[in-house]
Amino acid sequence: MATEGQRVVLITGCSSGIGMGIAVRLARDENQRYYVIATMRDLKRKDKLVEAAGDAYGRTLSLLTLDVCSDESVKQCVDSVKDRHIDILINNAGVGLVGPVEGLSMEDMANVFETNFYGAVRMIKEVMPDMKRRRSGHILVISSVMGLQGVAFNDVYSASKFAIEGFCESLAVQLLKFNVTLSMIEPGPVHTEFEMRMIEDVSKKEFAGTDAETLHHFRTCYLTGAVNIFQALGQTPKDIAKVTQKVIESPRPPFRNLTNPLYTPIVALKYADDTGSLSVHTFYHMLYNLGGVMNVSVGLMKCLSCGCIRKRTISPI
Ligand SMILES: NC(=O)c1ccc[n+]([C@@H]2O[C@H](COP(=O)([O-])OP(=O)(O)OC[C@H]3O[C@@H](n4cnc5c(N)ncnc54)[C@H](OP(=O)(O)O)[C@@H]3O)[C@@H](O)[C@H]2O)c1
């Protein structure tokens, strides 16, 4: 149970990836400022988290079952928290979906919205009234760069993240009146099961109903580029956990938080031209015409961002 002065943090989707990374980082805070309730759909998947948490498990970390797609599960979970008191809610649970729209089932698309959009809304709806009453609280959503800029063949995933961005941008204003803060964390690619599942899914799916030309574009232009981008620019769950903790501890937490500075210019493109043509045409060239150049540039960007060249250039000796 949380001790006095500890902030109670509830995180969704902690069986792997970013959710697990955030849970472990906050639970292992050396000043024990957080009491983390790490939740997951199926507690049989808890072992990796428990191992990574080490002696924090049972002390500053406890586990609860929670499926963000079920009203009953969400209510039961929140009701089982002492006095329903949650200081910080981190909406992390999410699923991906890639592929040509014609080849995806409406059921798969609905599942993406049910988890990424309605799942977060369901959580916020359950926790927010208590925060408003107490006039204190912080809600975070693990969104994505794709919630700010659409990416080809990620149409539905991107739409689900745009939806949650729009929802939160609206709600943040109202919540300020109650001293409740809302923050979005917007990672680019991150090495997690998400990425592995995407590659596995794509190799199994036939995308029936998709014409051969589109399928060829998807497999040769998009997939090859996506794998290279993940390899070159991918962050780790630890990187995202570090940014998340910084946001939580900021005296005035920003609403938007891109975790990967290499993506700032991509997002800036759409604001540089209010007709939208600049970003549509730039992405078109990146996808269809600049495959080879892109791969080299991605490697170069990675190299430049690691800082070794800069350090060598400004060395006084
Ligand atoms: N990886 C990336 O490149 C990336 C980039 C930007 C944003 N994000 C976002 O980061 C978040 C975490 O993703 P990740 O990369 O850490 O992927 P991940 O390793 O696949 O983790 C996703 C987590 O969500 C859980 N989940 C799925 N459906 C759920 C449901 N109905 N109820 C409760 N939990 C559910 C999964 O649990 P199960 O074990 O039960 O399936 C898993 O623990 C997602 O919102 C994703 O959109 C990821």
What does this structure look like?
Helix content is 53%, strand content 12%. With 317 residues, it is an alpha/beta fold. The protein has a domain at 94-260: Rossmann fold. A seven-stranded parallel beta sheet has the order 3-2-1-4-5-6-7, with helices on both faces. The radius of gyration is 20 Å and the shape is globular. Mean pLDDT is 91; it is low at 308-317. The site of NADP nicotinamide-adenine-dinucleotide phosphate (NAP) has 30 residues, from helix 1, helix 4 and helix 6.
Key words describing this protein structure:
317 residues, Rossmann fold, binds NADP nicotinamide-adenine-dinucleotide phosphate, alpha/beta, disordered C terminus, 7-stranded parallel β-sheet, 7 strands, single chain, globular
Instruction: Give me the CATH architecture of the domain at 94-260, please.
Output: 3-Layer(aba) Sandwich
Let me know the number of strands.
7
Q: What letter string, H or E per element, gives the SSE order?
A: EHEHEHEHEHEHHHEHHHH
Percent helix among the residues? 40-55%
Strand order in the sheet with the most strands: 3-2-1-4-5-6-7
CATH C-level name of the domain at 94-260: Alpha Beta
Reported for the largest beta sheet, the result is: 7 strands, parallel
Binding site for substrate: 144
Pfam families: adh_short
GO molecular function: all-trans-retinol dehydrogenase (NAD+) activity; estradiol 17-beta-dehydrogenase [NAD(P)+] activity
Family: Belongs to the short-chain dehydrogenases/reductases (SDR) family.
